[in-house]
Structure formats: C-alpha cells, structure tokens
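JOB MANIFEST
job_type = single_chain_structure
chain_count = 1
residues = 195
[input]
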Amino acid sequence: MHFSSCVLVSALAMVANVATASPPPLQQLSRPALKDSTIFRSTVYCADCPEGNCYMCTLGHNNTLVANTGGMAYLRALVGFQLPVPAKKVKKCTVQFPAFVKLMEAPINITVSEAKSNDWNEDTVTGENAPETGEPFSTSHVPALTNPPALDATEACKNAAENGDFSIYVGAQFGRFEIWSKDSGNPAILHTYYK
C-alpha cells in the first residue's frame, strides 16, 4: 500500500473513533437542604396552632415533613436549596429524601413543583405566607413498601435565583406520607449534574 493511502486510512479511522466516542460524563455535586417545613392548609380547627387556625402553624423545626391530599387538610413539604454551580450550567437535578417515617402499605405518587420564591424561613413560614407555587412538573410513582426514589427537580434548578437559591414543594397526588426533615439530622440531598 502506498504511504499516502496508509495516512488516509489512518485519518479516516481516527475520524470514525471521534465520531462514535461518547460525550464526556456530567460532573456531579451534592448538597443538603438549607431549610424545610411542612405547609399546613386546612379549614378544620388545629388545637396546636395560634387561634386554632391551621394556616397559622409554623412547622419549620419539626423532625418530619408531611404531605397530604384529601379530606379537609392539604399539606406539602417546602424545601429550600442552594445550587453549587450557576443555573446555566445545570443539566439535571434530583432530590433524594432519606426515607419515609413509616413505609407506605399502598403505592403513592409524589409530586414536585417549583416555589415561586425562596424568600421564607423556617421560624415564620406558615400556610398564610408560604411562597406561591406552579403546577407540578414531575411526578414519581412509589411502589408499596419502598422508600422515595430520587425526585426530578431539574426545572426548579434551572430557574434558581442568581445566587443559586431555590425552593420546591413536595406533595402527594392522592394520600398522605411523612418523611424525615433536616431537623431530624436527615436532610434531603440535592444532586446537581452539570457541564
């Protein structure tokens, strides 16, 4: 074979290898939740809340977070994070909660929606002053007798404030669940995948 033919064949082989090579993997950083609280909205009497008004309960330092849809009460977990990288670099985000307080005996769907503001704190947030929310952007099915999977929070991560702060609401599509909060020593963990 002629020398120039060998060079051409080698060059073509190199181009083929480059064309079929997989893209570099995403980098990942993990961070715990900075704050969390159960947001309680109900029209029934709540003996432990100021004036018996469930909307006035501050639950930001409880050891658990509760979500409930149905009956007379609507509860969701509000959880705040800070991105470890600029939002424009984020390709994917997931949030992993440690475990249900008690395994669910029936399957449940967990929803994630974006809080419209991160301007809240655990000492004062209530059903009356909690941030507004959008529609759920991700839903995860959890089979009976299993713990929650990593929940997709990509949309909220990509919409984080310039300083990286953002919050999500975690709820139940139907039913009730209880998970450990950061005050129990088991915060939710944000996994950020970026380039």
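[summary]
The chain has one domain: 25-194.
The helical segments are 3-20, 154-158.
exit_status = 0
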